[in-house]
Design goal:
- Helices cover 72% and strands 0% of the residues.
- The protein has one domain.
- The longest helix has 18 residues.
- By secondary structure, it is mainly alpha-helical.
- It is built from four helices and no strands.
- Helix 1 packs parallel to helix 3, helix 2 packs across helix 3 and helix 3 crosses helix 4.
Amino acid sequence: MAIYLHLQTHGMAPKEIACIIKAYEQTLRALCVKDRDDPLTELVAKTIIKIVQKGLKDPAQISAQAITELEMLGERRPAN
Protein backbone atom coordinates (compact mmCIF):
# COMPACT_ATOMS: atom_id res chain seq x y z
CA MET A 1 0.00 0.00 0.00
CA ALA A 2 1.45 3.34 -1.08
CA ILE A 3 0.91 5.11 2.25
CA TYR A 4 3.10 2.70 4.20
CA LEU A 5 6.15 3.47 2.08
CA HIS A 6 5.76 7.15 2.89
CA LEU A 7 5.20 6.53 6.59
CA GLN A 8 8.46 4.60 6.84
CA THR A 9 10.46 7.55 5.55
CA HIS A 10 8.79 10.31 7.59
CA GLY A 11 9.34 9.02 11.15
CA MET A 12 5.95 9.82 12.64
CA ALA A 13 4.42 8.95 16.02
CA PRO A 14 1.95 6.01 16.22
CA LYS A 15 -1.02 8.32 16.87
CA GLU A 16 -0.15 10.41 13.82
CA ILE A 17 0.30 7.27 11.72
CA ALA A 18 -3.16 6.02 12.73
CA CYS A 19 -4.66 9.36 11.74
CA ILE A 20 -2.92 9.30 8.36
CA ILE A 21 -3.99 5.74 7.59
CA LYS A 22 -7.58 6.56 8.51
CA ALA A 23 -7.54 9.64 6.25
CA TYR A 24 -5.93 7.62 3.44
CA GLU A 25 -8.51 4.83 3.61
CA GLN A 26 -11.36 7.34 3.85
CA THR A 27 -10.07 9.19 0.79
CA LEU A 28 -9.71 6.03 -1.28
CA ARG A 29 -13.27 5.00 -0.36
CA ALA A 30 -14.60 8.46 -1.30
CA LEU A 31 -12.80 8.25 -4.64
CA CYS A 32 -14.06 4.67 -5.17
CA VAL A 33 -10.53 3.31 -5.52
CA LYS A 34 -10.68 -0.40 -4.77
CA ASP A 35 -7.50 -1.55 -6.49
CA ARG A 36 -4.61 -0.79 -4.13
CA ASP A 37 -2.22 -1.12 -7.08
CA ASP A 38 -3.95 1.76 -8.87
CA PRO A 39 -1.42 4.55 -9.53
CA LEU A 40 -3.89 6.98 -7.96
CA THR A 41 -3.08 5.49 -4.52
CA GLU A 42 0.44 6.93 -4.74
CA LEU A 43 -0.91 10.39 -5.54
CA VAL A 44 -3.41 10.13 -2.67
CA ALA A 45 -0.64 9.09 -0.26
CA LYS A 46 1.64 11.97 -1.28
CA THR A 47 -1.23 14.46 -1.03
CA ILE A 48 -2.22 13.28 2.45
CA ILE A 49 1.37 13.39 3.73
CA LYS A 50 1.73 16.93 2.37
CA ILE A 51 -1.49 18.03 4.12
CA VAL A 52 -0.44 16.46 7.43
CA GLN A 53 2.92 18.20 7.24
CA LYS A 54 1.04 21.52 7.06
CA GLY A 55 -0.46 20.75 10.49
CA LEU A 56 -3.93 19.32 9.85
CA LYS A 57 -4.67 16.53 12.37
CA ASP A 58 -8.30 15.41 11.89
CA PRO A 59 -8.65 12.43 9.49
CA ALA A 60 -11.96 13.65 8.07
CA GLN A 61 -10.54 17.12 7.40
CA ILE A 62 -7.37 15.65 5.92
CA SER A 63 -9.43 13.45 3.61
CA ALA A 64 -11.69 16.32 2.55
CA GLN A 65 -8.68 18.53 1.81
CA ALA A 66 -6.98 15.74 -0.14
CA ILE A 67 -10.09 15.21 -2.27
CA THR A 68 -10.31 18.94 -2.95
CA GLU A 69 -6.65 19.11 -3.98
CA LEU A 70 -6.94 16.02 -6.17
CA GLU A 71 -10.05 17.44 -7.86
CA MET A 72 -8.16 20.67 -8.56
CA LEU A 73 -5.34 18.64 -10.15
CA GLY A 74 -7.88 16.90 -12.37
CA GLU A 75 -9.33 20.22 -13.48
CA ARG A 76 -5.89 21.47 -14.52
CA ARG A 77 -5.20 18.45 -16.73
CA PRO A 78 -5.92 18.95 -20.43
CA ALA A 79 -8.88 17.03 -21.80
CA ASN A 80 -8.10 14.13 -24.13
